[in-house]
Write a structure and sequence with these properties.
Blueprint: H1 3-18, H2 29-56, H3 59-74, H4 99-121, H5 125-146
Helix pairs in contact: 2-3, 2-5, 3-4, 4-5
The chain binds heme C.
Length: 153
């Protein structure tokens, strides 16, 4: 192949990438799904720890777990790109009709986790229990509209 033809091909590829015909980074729905589920499981694990430690009044251990929930719930929209509802997933395609709302719900969970961090910082048991319950409700607030239910939910 002559040099100018290679040059033209490269130019065409650059244009295609710039126009979005080629993904900027490899969009692998299976990988995104795996990360989303692993993140949700990690959130769930942190919630269990919070429940145990707040029951024991061990607020020093509630803090890092609540911080983890804040960080991970903030990551949910980024782990829910359009088209990532293939395979063994319960995410509803409605997410991409209302992505603004979905982001808002993720933000609400982050806010509730931050309130929990504050309450744990003050070692205020009643406030910790209230914040934990509000945080758990913020999970349901997103699962109800955007996750396909299964037995036990
Ligand atoms: C902004 C929306 C949103 C918020 C907030 C949210 N989730 Fe989820 N969660 C989802 C969606 C969507 C799924 C389904 C994911 C899938 O199957 O692809 C899910 C799935 C899960 C699962 C099941 C994972 C699996 O392996 O099937 C658990 C457990 C979970 N979430 C826990 C939580 C907890 C605990 C919180 C709150 C601290 C929370 N989630 C907050 C949207 C959310």
């Amino acid at each position: 192949m002559r040099g100018w033809r290679v040059g033209l091909m490269i130019a065409a590829l650059i244009v295609a990438a710039a126009e979005g015909f080629l993904p900027a980074r490899a969009a692998d729905p299976a990988q995104v799904l795996k990360e989303r589920l692993a993140t949700m499981k990690a959130i769930n694990q942190a919630m269990r720890e919070i429940k145990v430690y707040s029951g024991k009044g061990d607020f020093a251990k509630v803090l890092p777990a609540a911080q983890k929930v804040a960080d991970l719930t903030a990551a949910i929209p980024g782990l829910s790109p359009e088209g990532s509802h293939t395979g063994k997933t319960r995410i509803k395609p409605e997410v991409w009709k209302n992505f603004g709302h979905y982001k808002e719900l993720s933000g609400n969970s982050v806010q509730e986790a931050k309130k929990l961090i504050q309450a744990a910082g003050k070692k205020d048991r009643a406030a910790v229990l209230k914040a934990f319950s509000d945080l758990a409700n913020s999970c349901t607030a997103c699962h109800e509209p955007y996750r396909v239910p299964k037995k036990g939910d």
